[in-house]
Amino acid sequence: MTISITPKTKKVHVYYTTSPNAGALQWLEQSQTSGKQKPFLFTQSQAILARTWVPCMDGPGVRFTYTATIRTRPDLAAVMSAAGNSGTKTADGVYKFEMKQPIPSYLLALGVGDLEFRPLGHRGGVYAEPNVVEKAAYEFVDLEKMISAAEELYGPYRWERYDLLVLPPSFPFGGMENPRLTFATPTVLAGDRSLVALVAHELAHSWSGNLVTNATWDDFWLNEGFTVYFEQRIMEKLYGREHSEMLATLALKDLKETIEELGATSPDTHLKLNLKGRDPDDGMNDVAYNKGYFFLRLCEETFGREEWDGFLKEYFNENAFKPMTTELFLKHLNTYFKDTSKKESLHINAWVYAAGIPDNCPQPQSSEFEKVSAKIEAMKNGTPAVQLQTQGWTTHHWLYFIRNLPDSLKLEKLIEIDYAFYFTRSGNQEILCEWFQRCIKAKYETANGPMRNYLMNVGRRKLIKPIYTELAKTPEGKAWAKEVYTKARPGYHSVSYNTIDDILK
Ligand SMILES: [Zn+2]
């Protein structure tokens, strides 16, 4: 859209209507919500979907402030990534918002539904449907501790409030760091607070991403790599090094799998991407997150934690509310640190401008996972699954366990494991996602019913993509997947169905 202005023009009014099928918007029927009583609407603007619901300069290098008035049915509440979320429904269904801090368009966000609020400390809380809100408040009880830990690490929280909105299960991402109001998937509500790293991640974005923002989507790792690094530091501060090393071990495995999938020489495995002519969403994978994390961890280990933290604190402070390119970041790094031999030992070019995982990648050490490996070994040597000592295992132990089962596992053994640990009946969607991939490989048909249910109900891309991918490897699997997908697709957000359409085409 081009608007001609004269030197005298001070204001431009744009009158517009958005279309009901705008890519950012997901309109849910009441049957697609948790409560099944009232409809729901949410937006997902990242990466370049803000333009589908609001005319704007839709690139991450441009920032704006905004005000908004939302009118809705009085039995629904509206919340936005702005000041004005009140925690109570208004009598007339009118809500007013103002975002005073300048944000890039991808952080513009709106949610409307049957929402209730529970405070968690003096500057944070959680919004969710009435039948989910208590569970969410239980899960996120450490929120204020996380905010304080983050502030101790890298300086003050600059957005006043930090609230969470738990969405219906079709939300395509784990979380979205909309400022003042993180959007979160209900798949983190495991009931045992084991998946709250996601909250640490979205909170960390309040610095990396929302304050210092990737100037273009080619610099996406500046948002995500920094945020995974920061998330790990928060998790370590709250729950100890052993816990954060479990997360890092799983991250390294994810990264290796992604690189294998993309190809060892693929330019999509560089930290600095080249997305020219593509939808940025297609080039975003966990390289930006996990390769980015391991590069920053290498910096920490090379320069020493204290000096590295000093650098990061200054970096966030000096560049707050500004766009950042990869090259400018490297310039800051080069100016701050003086020791040339340490800088050379990083092999920056291999990390940033070349493919794969460089040889000097840090190796996480998890003694907890060593114990899990020992149990798998014992099982290989004949110990029945039901006799394995697994007391105190968390989601991460189980994920590691399932992922490291031998590839050649026979169907009988899989059934024995299922009888011992009831994975097929698990309520934990991360565990189900790993488990179903195993079931598909071993042709364990008992899992088909629960898997169908899962695919009909969960819309988080990360948790459905691997299952459709595994199914698509055989003609029978693909036929079954297509049949389920025809029914499941209307419940998915465009971010998810665009990915799955490609897998099943
Ligand atoms: Zn993120």
Descriptive account of the structure:
The protein is an alpha/beta fold. It has three domains: 25-184, Zincin-like, CATH 3.30.2010.30; 212-352, Neutral Protease, domain 2 (Orthogonal Bundle); 367-504, Alpha Horseshoe (Serine Threonine Protein Phosphatase 5, Tetratricopeptide repeat). The protein is built from 19 helices and 13 strands. It has helices spanning 133-139, 143-154, 197-204, 220-239, 241-262, 280-283, 286-303, 305-318, 326-336, 340-345, 348-352, 367-380, 395-403, 411-421, 429-442, 448-457, 461-471, 475-488, 494-504; strands at residues 25-28, 40-43, 63-71, 77-80, 94-104, 110-113, 116-119, 124-128, 162-166, 175-176, 181-184, 212-214, 322-324. The strands form four sheets. A five-stranded mixed β-sheet has the order 7-8-9-11-10, with helices on one face. A four-stranded antiparallel β-sheet has the order 1-2-6-4, with no helix packed on it. The longest helix has 22 residues, at 241-262. The chain is globular. The structure holds zinc ion (ZN). Zinc ion is lined by residues 201, 205, 224, 227. Zinc ion (ZN) binds at residues 201, 205, 224, 227.
Mean pLDDT: 96
- Which CATH class of the largest domain is shown? Alpha Beta
Number of H/I helices: 19
Name the hetero compounds present. zinc ion
- Number of E strands: 13
The main sheet comes to: 5 strands, mixed
Helix content: 40-55%
Structural class: alpha/beta
First-to-last CA distance:
34 Å
Q: C-alpha Rg, in Å?
A: 23 Å
Strand residue content = 5-15%
Indicate the multimeric state.
single chain
> How many separate domains?
3
Shape by Cα distribution: globular
In the predicted model, the low-confidence regions spanning at least 5 consecutive residues are none
CATH architectural arrangement of the largest domain: 2-Layer Sandwich
Q: Any idea of the CATH topology of the largest domain? A: Zincin-like
Strand order, largest beta sheet: 7-8-9-11-10
